[in-house]
Amino acid sequence: MTDAQNVSAAAAGTAVAPIPAERLPRHVAIVMDGNGRWAEQRHRPRTFGHRAGVKAVRATVESCVRLRIPALTLFAFSSENWARPPSEVRALMVLFLKALDREVDQLHDNGVRLRFIGDPTAFPPDLQDRMRATVERTAGNSVLSLNVASNYGGRWDIAQAARRAALEVAAGRLDPAAIDARVLGGFMSLADLPDPDLFIRTGGDHRVSNFLLWQIAYAELYFTEVLWPDFDERCLQRALADFARRERRFGKTGAQLRAEAGP
Ligand code: IPE
Ligand code: IPE
Ligand code: MG
After folding, report:
1. Cβ(33) to ligand 1 under 6 A?
2. Which residue segments constitute the domains of the chain, with CATH numbers given?
3. Average pLDDT over residues 36-57
4. pLDDT beyond 80 at 246
């Protein structure tokens, strides 16, 4: 039994069959939603919920490391979240900065490679410096690729990919006739990773909110009512078990897949 299977079995309880390692996703993407409502339910300010959300991030990262899921992409701050009250945006920045400082040693010790996707230029310079330093420090790690989407939007991502492709064309290095989905995909964020297999959104809303639009073309979508601060190992296990049961056909018929799998 692999480590991943052992952890699956332990968390799911003995009655539930462990998830075979080959049925686990290679890349999980999560819209971590519901911090504000979690705090409101407790009559506390929204930032209290964001702080509680950091704990759920830590638990999820640790689970992915243990399960040997090689890539995790978390939506931390969307390009639309600037529309929130300035005090909440400021509090999120401070929290982000503190969490980076506090967590980076342990992430590094656990072999986590941390990267950020999105446009960093709108962030305060000290935050940008810290982000850069963390990326450089963990660049050699390979257990888990942890990608934090901050000031990220899926449409921004497609636009920046098109802009970079256009620059290559202008420089004479790319033939416009050669631009297809594979070529443009090479300019998208996370192009070096497999596309997310499993897209999770907590907080009960059934929408994508401008997260990885391009990259989730064939992701399995999983929505849960659980608010992000309450999302723990068991919640992740439920999502993984649901994913493991799905038949991913990628345009083929079920009969074709069964024939390919053999007797
Ligand atoms: C998600 O939780 C965290 C961020 C967007 C930063 P929310 O803050 O959106 O929580 P709800 O949706 O208001 O409960
Ligand atoms: C999506 O959550 C963004 C993040 C989790 C960072 P939102 O709470 O901002 O999404 P909407 O506004 O409800 O669509
Ligand atoms: Mg929300």
Report:
1. yes
2. 25-153+196-242 (3.40.1180.10)
3. 98
4. yes
Confidence (pLDDT) at 85:
97
Q: How confident is the model at residue 18, as a pLDDT? A: 81
pLDDT at 12 over 50: no
* Alpha-carbon gap, residue 149 to 137, rounded angstroms: 18
What is the three-class DSSP state of 243?
helix
How far is the C-alpha of 220 from the C-alpha of 248, rounded, in Å?
A: 8
CA of 193 to the centre of ligand 2 (A): 24
Q: How far is the CA of 77 from the centre of ligand 3 (A)?
A: 10
Q: Where are the beta strands (DSSP E) in the chain?
A: 27-31, 71-78, 112-117, 144-152, 198-201, 220-223
Q: In one letter, which amino acid is 134? A: T
Looking at 75-208, list the stretches that DSSP marks H as alpha helix, in order from N- to C-terminal side. 86-109, 125-138, 154-170, 181-185
Residue 124: pLDDT over 70: yes
Residues 6+ apart with CB under 8 A from 239: 198, 200, 222, 224
Query: Which amino acid, one-letter code, is at 36?
Result: G
Q: Are 165 and 179 in contact (CB under 8 A)?
A: yes
